[in-house]
Amino acid sequence: MAKLTxxxxxxxxxxxxxxxxxxCQMTARTQNDVFRDYLRTLAKKMSKKGxxxxxx
Length: 56
Prior knowledge:
- By secondary structure, the protein is an all-alpha fold.
- It has helices at 14-27, 31-48.
């Protein structure tokens, strides 16, 4: 795995955060893990549409 050097900050509504935290708890995964996994799914969608992507 690549060295983690960058960080991202973003804002959520209270409802969005609650859904995210519930999902993390339900799947016994960390918030970072869920976020990174979601980014990987976006990368796959992008590659299917022909976009160049360094994550894949």
